[in-house]
Give the backbone structure.
Amino acid sequence: MSTDTPADARVTRVWSRSVEWLAEYAPPSYAALMPGASDDEIVALEEALGVSVPEELKALWRLSAGEDGVAGSGLMMGSWALMPLDAVIEVHRLQMRFQEESGEDSLVLWGPSWIPFCSLSPDDTVYGLYLNGETGEVCRWTRYGDREREYESLPAYLELMAVSLEAPLATAGPEKPGMMGGALVWGPPPDEERKDQWVRHLGQAPPRHPAKTLGAIREALPGDERAELDEQRDALDLADPEAVAAFRDHWWERAVQAQEELERDVASALGGHVMVQPGRKLAPEYEATLPPAIRHRPPSMDDIRAALRHESVRARFDREFMDAIPPHYPALQLRWWDIARLMADPRGDRAVRAVVNGRRTSG
């Protein structure tokens, strides 16, 4: 039987969402994550610190015990790096020594239950984030003695990070998810050279139709039609350019048709999962996926369109937008913002993926 607390389970859930995003969109950052810590390693850390670590932080470390750093930026929201456990011990001991040397009557600069977990980079620990074990708040420390509350809890911080990755146009903070050399970099970076190399991630949909290559055509076909393509390809006279072109054109048209059928099924899957009526408030389960600052405040129509991940859904949005009259725009905007957030939520996206994967692997 699982002994996870609600905070543990929430950390596990939202961190897994971020890791899934990294694996799909930023493989170099995914590769920079260290393996999770064992229970024995966490016990050894607690003994070294002389204090119990909050369960939600243990849950995070069991999944990923730090990162190696990549592209000059930490992968955590705010460009923080997830600290390796030996760095956690080093920073905690250093800060406690500073506190002891400052005397009992001095300002509290560090408490025993303040556990660091993020820093500027794995090697630069003069700034960072720590978890206050007494209040559960995530706070920031600096070399100048600043101690400021940043987030109400570790699960809240990780939830905001996951939402910002999955729905990048809904990111409320100044740092937006982007890419440099395929790695996640929260930006835009302050220096001009890196800023020119940084590309903001907007969650764009892939091209609607497959490329006109045999590999792309085969991938777009339903699974039970691929054997027929393979059989005809193997019997094809490669020395006859016209026959090769006719074969390719025939199967490309069939792949386009299959893709359009797939998109209709995707649209149907989405339509069955929308939990809001036009003009009403968003459903609570979808409202909870957004940062508090932008709940009930849909973005522009252009932002909504860019956030829709599948081209077929964008086409539906375009048709409804063109057919609507201005008095209907607020309801249209609210409904489609809810659909865009549904597609950003892994639960909604998995409903779409189930249709896609089922079609492509059938037979």
Q: What stands out?
A: The CA atoms of residues 126 and 143 lie 5 Å apart.
